Automatic annotation (TrEMBL), chain A:
Keywords: Mitochondrion, Ribonucleoprotein, Ribosomal protein
Gene Ontology MF terms in the entry: mRNA binding; structural constituent of ribosome
Cell compartments where the protein resides: Mitochondrion
Family matches, as SUPFAM superfamilies: Ribosomal protein L13
Name the UniProt record assigns to this protein: Large ribosomal subunit protein uL13m
Higher taxonomy: Eukaryota, Metazoa, Chordata, Craniata, Vertebrata
InterPro entries in UniProt: Ribosomal_uL13, Ribosomal_uL13_bac-type, Ribosomal_uL13_sf
Automatic annotation (TrEMBL), chain B:
Key words, A-Z: Mitochondrion, Ribonucleoprotein, Ribosomal protein, Transit peptide
One Pfam family this sequence matches: Ribosomal_S18
Localisation per UniProt entry: Mitochondrion
One annotated GO biological process: mitochondrial translation
Name of this protein: Large ribosomal subunit protein mL66
GO cellular component, one term: mitochondrial inner membrane
Annotated GO MF terms: small ribosomal subunit rRNA binding; structural constituent of ribosome
Source species, domain of life: Eukaryota
Database matches in InterPro entries: Ribosomal_bS18 (IPR001648), Ribosomal_bS18_sf (IPR036870)
Family according to the record: Belongs to the bacterial ribosomal protein bS18 family. Mitochondrion-specific ribosomal protein mL66 subfamily.
Protein's UniProt keywords contain Ribonucleoprotein: yes
Principal location: mitochondrion
Length: 179, 186
C-alpha cells in the first residue's frame, strides 16, 4: 500500500505468515495442495525458488479427514525398511488408526518439489490430529484458510420448518402401511 | 409470479412452491400386546398445497422437474423414499420410474455411507453388543460396500493404472454447474 512507510511495506512483504487449515470432513489431497502452495510461497507475487519465501501452515483435526469413494480400503501406503523381507503395505484405514497425522503428512510430502528445500518446508508444516494447539503456535497464527469442500448437512441438522417447507413429491396410498 | 423459495436443494437452488398432498397418510402404531391381534392405524391429515410444475408425468421426479438435479447430499428429497430403518420403498408404491428409482437407491446408499441419515439405521436386537468397535472413518461418494472392497496393492503404471471408483456412473447425466468435469475414477 502506498500509504505505508518503506520499512513497514518491506516487512509486510517478506514476513513469514502462519496459516491455519481445518481438515474436518475434508479430502486430504485438497488440503495437501493448499498446504504445498503456501509452504513453497507460490501464493506470493514475490515467489522465487531460491528466496525461501514459504510460510508456515498448521493443519488441525486431521483425525477427522474424509476420503471420497472407497479409498480408505483401496488406497495402499507402501514402505520398505531396507532389510530383506521388509516390504510393508498398509491400507489407508490401518495407517490412519496407527497414526492420524501420517496421511496428510505423506500427501504434502509428495506434492512438494523434489529438492533439498522439501525437508525444510516439511519442518514448517505443523499437523495436529485434534483441535488442541500449543499456545505458542496459536499466538503465531495470522490467517485461517476456507475449507475446500462444502460439508453436506445431515438429516438431523435440518430444522422442522425446513423439512416442512420441502414439498412431498408423492402421495402414499391410504391403505399402505409405512414402517 | 412464482412464490418465494421456502427451501433450497443442496445440489442446485430451485424455487419450488410448497405443496402438501390432500389425502392422509396411514401410519401404523406398534402392535398392542393382547390376545386378539389388532393393528391400530392413524390417518394423518396433511393439508393440500399448490400443484407440481409438470402434473401430467408418471414419475414424481419428472412431475417436479428434478430429473438431473439431485445428488447424495439432498437428504430432504431422499428421505421421502426410504423406510424408517433405511431401506428403499417399493417402486409400485412410490410411483418412480425404473431409472430414477435406481438413481435414488444409489444416492440413498451413498448418503447412508456418508452418515447423512443417522436416524434411519436398522434396529438392533436388545442387548446386542458389537464384538469389535468399528473405526469411525469419514467418507463420501462411496460406490461399493465397505467390506466388499479389497486394497489395490499394485496400482500399475500410467497407461494401465488401476483407478479407485468415486461416485456412480448413473449420476453422470446430472447437470454440471461448474466448468470442471465430474471424475468417476480417481
Amino acid at each position: 500500500m502506498s500509504s505505508f512507510s518503506r520499512s513497514a511495506q518491506q516487512w509486510a512483504t517478506f514476513a513469514r505468515s502462519w496459516f491455519l487449515i481445518d481438515a474436518r470432513m475434508q479430502p486430504p489431497g485438497k488440503i495437501a495442495t493448499m498446504c504445498s502452495v503456501r509452504l513453497q510461497g507460490k501464493h506470493k507475487p514475490i515467489y522465487h525458488a531460491l528466496s525461501d519465501c514459504g510460510d508456515h501452515v498448521v493443519v488441525i483435526n486431521t483425525k477427522h479427514i474424509a476420503f471420497s469413494g472407497n479409498k480408505w480400503e483401496q488406497k495402499v501406503y507402501s514402505s520398505h525398511t531396507g532389510f530383506p523381507g521388509g516390504f510393508k503395505q498398509v491400507t489407508a484405514a490401518q495407517l490412519h488408526l496407527k497414526d492420524p497425522k501420517a496421511i496428510v503428512r505423506l500427501a504434502v510430502y509428495g506434492m512438494l518439489p523434489r529438492n533439498l528445500h522439501r525437508r525444510t518446508m516439511m519442518q514448517r508444516l505443523h499437523i495436529f490430529p485434534e483441535d488442541e494447539l500449543p499456545d505458542d503456535i496459536r499466538a503465531n497464527l495470522t490467517e485461517e484458510l476456507p475449507q475446500p469442500r462444502e460439508i453436506p448437512r445431515k438429516l438431523s441438522e435440518y430444522t422442522q420448518e425446513e423439512m416442512d417447507a420441502f414439498p412431498r413429491l408423492w402421495i402414499p396410498p391410504e391403505d399402505y402401511k409405512m414402517k | 409470479t412464482p412464490a418465494e423459495p421456502d427451501f433450497t436443494l443442496n445440489y442446485c437452488s430451485l424455487a419450488l412452491p410448497v405443496v402438501k398432498p390432500p389425502q392422509g397418510t396411514l401410519v401404523s402404531k406398534g402392535l398392542q400386546p393382547c390376545s386378539e391381534s389388532t393393528i391400530e392405524g392413524q390417518i394423518i391429515e396433511i393439508p393440500a398445497g399448490p400443484q407440481p410444475p409438470n402434473p401430467t408425468a408418471q414419475c414424481p421426479i419428472y412431475r417436479w422437474n428434478l430429473q438431473h438435479k439431485y445428488n447424495y447430499t439432498d437428504v430432504l428429497l431422499l428421505s421421502q423414499f426410504i423406510r424408517s430403518d433405511g431401506g428403499m420403498l417399493p417402486r409400485r408404491i412410490t410411483g418412480l420410474c425404473l431409472e430414477e428409482h435406481r438413481k435414488i437407491a444409489i444416492c440413498v446408499q451413498m448418503a447412508h455411507r456418508a452418515g447423512l441419515l443417522p436416524d434411519h439405521k436398522p434396529k438392533l436386537p436388545e442387548g446386542h453388543v458389537p464384538k469389535r468397535p468399528k473405526p469411525q472413518l469419514n467418507r463420501y461418494l462411496t460406490r461399493w460396500s465397505i467390506d466388499s472392497v479389497k486394497p489395490i496393492y499394485k496400482r500399475g503404471l500410467k497407461w494401465c493404472k488401476k483407478r479407485m471408483d468415486v461416485g456412480h456412473p448413473a449420476l453422470r447425466s446430472n447437470v454440471q454447474y461448474g466448468v470442471k468435469p465430474l471424475h468417476i475414477k480417481h
